[in-house]
Amino acid sequence: MKFVRKMILPALLAVGAAMAVPAAHAAAFKVAIGDAAGGTQYELGKAFAESLKAKTNGQATADLFPNSQLGDEQDTVNNAAMGLLDFSILAINNITPFSPSVAVLTLPYVIQSPEDARQLTQGEVGKQLTENTIRDAQVRIIGWSYSGFRVLTNSKRPVSTLDDLKGLVIRVPKNELMIATYKAWGINPSPLAWSETFTALQQRVVDGQDNPYITVSAMKFNEVQKYITPIRYLFSLEPLIVSEQVFQSQSPEMQKAILAAGQEATEHSFKYLQDTEERIKKELVAAGMEITEPADGEKAWIEAAQTKVWPQFYDAVGGKEKLDAVLASLKR
Ligand code: MLT
Q1: Does the pTM of the predicted model rise above 0.85?
Q2: Residues with C-beta less than 6 Å from any ligand 1 atom
């Protein structure tokens, strides 16, 4: 081993960006990804894997398993908590059931722009939520994918008003906040696991769902959905989490490399959204989808969500004062 170290360490030191991870701590990690390849989750995973490899001079690799191959998104949180899975990239709404305070980032209409999303995740709020998820769910958020606003799609008719929504069966994740939001909008949504969503849309068990443009395209929902309503109630954040057990079992050098690679991948994700979302939107329209703007600048949707949903979740997010502080930090 001494010989190996003698040979490897000088090589590591010679590579400027690489961190000195001893050969004894080489690792092959598995990264679960909920969405198909081609979406923002996969892009974050790719950037993370490349960065980790570079930072450890090839000592650590991260293999990506898209399409929920390693389990449904909510199951991956459990598996990571138990140390059975290394990493997972999943929608934030699928972490909230395990760590309720994360809901502050998913309260409808709190995040109103990609910049708001970046500010909250990269600032004090993000730091606090990372600590909370370690405490509550035994997973550590080490990176963020910025995936854009979740737009509503359906196969039946153009939707512009809350009245248009009535009678549609809309799939939502098993997430109380999203369920409450649709209830505030006047319908009872159908909670369904992500891995079952495409089939449910295809077989018309449900009429619609909401997800960002890039996800709609990556999942080929345009093949089974016709109408888009670009509501802006939820900005989709898709964290990269690591099992706290796995993280704590790494050497300090490997931990440093993992955190740095997560940060680099996060920066890449923000740029990817800006470079990609508009093109994907045009591609969906070219593929036959129709966009109908919400009536009256979404006023009725916003009012219903803020007055009926927010108060139900004050406790979950740590009190109304917590939400007020978050809004104040966004200058609102
Ligand atoms: C969901 O709708 O369950 C999630 O947004 C799926 C995803 O990870 O994209």
Answers
A1: yes
A2: 34-35, 73, 90-91, 94, 173, 194, 211, 215, 238
